[in-house]
Amino acid sequence: MTGKTLLTLLLILSGLYTAEAQSSPPRLIVRGDDMGYSHAGNEAILTCYKEGIEKSIEVLVPSPWFPEAVKMLEQIPTADVGIHLTLTSEWDNIKWRPLSDCPSLRDADGYFYPMIRPNKNYPKRSVSENDWKLAEVEKEFRAQIELAMKKIPRISHFSGHMGCTSLDDDVKALVKKLAQEYHIPQYDMRLGEIGVANVGYVGAHATSEEKLQSFMKMLESLEAGKTYIFVDHPGLNTPEVQAIHHIGYENVAADRQGVTDVWTSPRVKEVIKDKGIQLIGYNDLEK
């Protein structure tokens, strides 16, 4: 084969690859986390699905507003829903407890610890700093999974609140085992294996306007033929959420209102339309 022939072949193959990539738009999962932590949070997540770009929703099963979340999800039967497995109750003014009898996962008051890993603002109040038991993690995860599947039969995946499903290798193996046993096809640790890339804001995102600009930059960076996931926490700037905070994250209400504003923004929708981005849920990953 001559050099000229080889160059021609490479150009043809390159053209075919480019055409194929252009015919397959970027796919993006926009996931709203923490449904159940507050009434306003539930309202925001519902709004971001009905009026915005959110396609996947994570539910905190032990949370105080879980029963309302179940009723709200009945309004959007096509929404992709996942179990946000949790071992923590991080806020200072509102707490939740395990669903099961698991002494090694509770603090002195019977609540989940506020943190998964050591945090200088909460000394000795993380799961990893205490004598947690794998058997009790399994018991609690099973309790959350079974209640979620009872109340929300269309569960498609697992994820870990504050990274609890990656506590250590044994917990990672446990999540994989539970996914297989309960026939849950998707879970966060598997996403990389199937080519789903995590994306975040591109640039500063402290204010609502910064979030908007950074989110649109992220959208512009998505490549044809690839699948991505973007995770954040919608909320509303109401007195209820203004009372929810922990040390190091005090501006929860304003910050989460910014997420809702971005995900329902006409400007964001226009970028998605212009770029041909396909919004999907976990339940679309194998399609």
Automatic annotation (TrEMBL):
Superkingdom of origin organism: Bacteria
Keyword terms of this UniProt record: Carbohydrate metabolism, Hydrolase, Magnesium, Metal-binding, Signal
Record's keyword annotation contains Magnesium: yes
Cofactor: Mg(2+)
Entry GO MF terms: deacetylase activity; hydrolase activity; metal ion binding
SUPFAM superfamilies for the chain: Glycoside hydrolase/deacetylase
Keyword rRNA-binding: no
Alphabetical GO biological process terms: carbohydrate metabolic process
Signal peptide span: 1-21
Family matches, as Pfam families: YdjC (PF04794)
PANTHER family (UniProt xref): CARBOHYDRATE DEACETYLASE, YDJC DEACETYLASE FAMILY MEMBER
Protein known as: ChbG/HpnK family deacetylase
Organism per entry: Spirosoma endophyticum
